Amino acid sequence: MKRSADTLEVRLDARTSSAKETLDLGISIGDFVAFDPRVEINAGFVRSRHLDDKACVATLVAAVKALADAGLKPAHTITIFISNYEEVGHGAAAGIPADVEELLVVDMAAVGEGQNSDELHASLCVKDSGGPYHHGMSDRLRLLAEKHEIPYKVDIYPDYGSDGEAFWAAGGDVAVALIGPGVDASHSYERTHTEALLATTRWIMAYLLEE
Fold first, then answer.
1. Mean of per-residue pLDDT scores for the chain
2. Annotated catalytic residue, options 21, 86, 165, 195
3. Which CATH number fits domain 37-209: 3.40.630.10, 3.40.50.300, 3.30.450.20, 3.90.1170.50?
4. What is the pLDDT of residue 11?
5. Strand, coil or helix: 46
6. Which end is more exposed in the chain, N or C (fewer Cβ atoms within 10 Å of the end residue's Cβ)?
């Protein structure tokens, strides 16, 4: 069924029978609605609401922690930027430091009909609804994945956008590339696999250590 104002409702876990009783509980227009993500992990598959883009935040945190635990330092100065506004299209339009020389976006790789991505691989997005990503940087990421035997696929997402596009649209003038784990059922009860998360984490680490 199509998701629209006519087919969706919010069920309030409170005994109210009027708008006034609801308002008296402190509930009002503009309040946040929190959904139980219903996280389940089975046979390596991770199912949850909102894996896009919490799964990618997890890979970034895991990569940095792994490097720190191993006593390794990135080959270059690294800034990690986590946006609260990626889903509405202007996440990285502001906040990227002026000294950034290139931008690696980490976002979910949508799995679906006509797509090359799957839930067991990391994916390299070479083009989306905003056009192609930086060819040279994408090729470097392919070489890194092959050098470190990281399982990956290359894909194009015609109905997808990322913080990289927002950065470019706001005047950002550096190379941008995009990687991320394969995620099924985008914006629904999503699913990925620990193999895709591990592959993405290893890819981030390889990028951070690249001379």
1. 94
2. 86
3. 3.40.630.10
4. 85
5. strand
6. C
Is 86 one of the annotated active-site residues of the chain?
yes
* Element holding 42 (H helix, E strand): strand 40-42
**SS3 of 106, please?**
strand
3-state class (DSSP) for residue 76? coil
The residue-averaged pLDDT of 186-204 equals 96
What global pTM score does this model have?
0.91
User: What is the three-class DSSP state of 208?
Assistant: helix
Polymer length in residues for the chain: 211
Task: Report residue 197 as tokens.
Answer: 């998360």
Contacts 24+ apart (CB under 8 A), 111-117: 111/182, 111/183, 111/184, 111/185, 111/186, 112/184, 112/186, 115/155, 115/157, 116/153, 116/154, 116/155, 116/156, 117/153, 117/155, 117/182
Number of other residues whose CB lies within 10 A of the CB of residue 191:
18
